[in-house]
Amino acid sequence: MQTKKWALLSALTLAMGAACATVGRAVPQPTLTYRDMRVRSLSFEGATLDFDFTVSNPNPVPVHLSSIDYAFELDGKELASGDQPQGIRIAARGESPVTVPVSIRFTDFGQSVAALFTDEATVPYSMQVGFGIDTPAGDVRVPMEKRGSMPLPKLPRARVAGVHLDKMSFSGAKVRFDVEVENPSSIPLEVQSLDYALAVAGVDVGGGETSVPKIAAGQKTITTIPVDLAFAQLGTAAVRAIREERIPYELRGRLDLGAFEHDFTSSGDADLD
What we know:
The chain is mostly beta strands.
């Protein structure tokens, strides 16, 4: 009698296991489709990106998107990762758009952050995601990896665009240096400050800090630096050149971009006007 009971229990267990396996095989796994990556915000500090996906449910019953895990790499360095709880219901044989926002800070590159911004307009990224979905057969994770490139701001360019003579006497001259700052990026540029040191004919004549107005995308602005030149401080050749309304100069500057500082040098012989 006991033997018959064990035989019956074994048969029932095998039957239930076979039924569960059949159900598991009968429930198709939801699919994940990548649609687009959109740049929501961008600066030298960092960026916020929106990754758009579509989750499709081939089952005759609803399923639920319970969670999303992700890891984002930029130029081979992981800058963001996390787990975002969801709770989105996906209708039977339906689909649902899902956006995964990712915020990154370029300053996480440390001292090499300035090297990230070159003349190249884009940098490669890798986005790995896993969508946790509750299905009739249990919880499943649908993974996907997307590789692409994202835009970066371009470094500003600065140069001396002109030198103006306001006043000249036997002992010296008052001049103004027009410093042109160009924003080649597709986003507005805010410069915290411009530090500079100026030399005329190889002689340091002063330095300081000045402000730079906000520059619209693809535009330029002019910042003026007034300088008092004492002829006693300069060599004979330099004084002669200035009296002939020519001025040899070298401007060494540093633009504070917030996330890092960008150095530049502008030199040459300028006509005084």
